[in-house]
Amino acid sequence: MSESTTPAAGARIVLKDVTKTYPGQVIPAVESFSMDIAPGELIMFVGPSGCGKTTTMKMINRIIEPSSGSITIDGEDVLSLNPNELRRRIGYVIQQIGLFPHMTIAENISVVPKLLGWDKKRTRDRVEELLAVVELDPKTFASRYPRQLSGGQQQRVGVARALAADPPVMLMDEPFGATDPITREKLQSEFLRLQEKLSKTIVFVTHDFDEAVRLGDRIAVLSERSQIEQFDTPANILANPANDYVSQFVGHGAALKRLGLIPVGHAALGPAGGQTAMTIGVDDSLRDALDALVLSGGLPVSVLDRNGSSVGTIDIERISAVLGAEILPPALAGGVRP
Ligand SMILES: Nc1ncnc2c1ncn2[C@@H]1O[C@H](COP(=O)(O)OP(=O)(O)OP(=O)(O)O)[C@@H](O)[C@H]1O
Which ligand 1 atom lies nearest to the CA of residue 207? Predict the structure, then answer.
């Protein structure tokens, strides 16, 4: 990325006692919601349909006006920001994508830059840069229309459009919800790679707890009226759900989900060499290692470093030890690195 477009890192978002009661309703859709989101954090809102996730998120960019309470971005009250300032500071991606069908991909991405009065060259350069960022070749895609793109490609354009003015904050409402599972996983990985570079502050709404675990720095598990049942890292929520409501959300397979978060390199590896049927990378997850163990018929799996050299082996005991050192015999538990 050129120096002129060094990305804006995230901003702090603070919601204090935010309540929204829709006109004609007695019960608020969101009641006394408070949250402090650090710059660069990726926060997932998960909860059942109708619990108030979207209403809470849309109050941050004022698509919905709060009935009471305050919301600040880097200390500034969002109610005091004019519409252009809001657009500059907050990108917005939605499930329905919302690309304009009669505009080319380049024109779609240029919508906010145009509103902000950027000149043609700056806008064109930014469009090219962003298409490259979301892995769509500008030569092929800039002049196409949305209907000439697959769902996954359209969703990438949606992300590029939200990033156009390099906002420090991104709001994402089920952005990958309408894609098939394989495309969805691909978009999630791309998105994580992108976020590693950009470090935006992101509020991401999803129904899918596994998506929340995969993407989130912290997850807010919400119940009716956007009440926060637990707000913590994926690993802590999986290991210690705060109550039955959260446990239900975690669902079955909590141990497998936890393994998905831990790199193989965190386990105490066995000695390299010996008979192994399969290999796994040191940065792959323990869930991948378990998968390889199942396919190898239980034979230890050889662990390779980034250069492809064998650095040790992993087996089922060593995987279990990472999750439950405290309940295993001391000899095994002792080998686990924190
Ligand atoms: N414009 C509106 N007028 C009145 N009630 C509304 C309005 N929009 C949403 N609601 C109600 O507010 C509550 C919260 O809705 P919201 O869309 O925020 O939930 P959600 O958790 O995002 O749901 P979903 O996952 O289904 O999108 C729901 O009971 C909904 O029916």
Answer: 25
Give residue 243's domain range.
11-250
Ligand 1 proximity of 54 Cβ (cutoff 6 Å):
yes
Q: Are 242 and 310 found together in one domain?
A: no
Protein residue with least CA distance to atom 16, ligand 1: 52
Say yes or no: ipTM exceeds 0.90.
Answer: yes
- Mean pLDDT, the chain, whole residue set: 85
Return the top range by mean pLDDT from 22-36, 99-113, 259-273. Answer: 22-36
d(CA 107, CA 122) in angstroms, rounded, equals 13
Q: Are residues 92 and 190 in the same domain?
A: yes
* pLDDT score for 57: 94
Task: Say if ligand 1 is within 6 A of residue 49 CB.
Answer: yes
Q: Give the dihedral sign, CA 113/99/97/154.
A: negative
Sign of CA dihedral 323, 42, 250, 280: negative
pLDDT given at position 6: 56
Cβ(55) – ligand 1 distance below 6 Å: yes
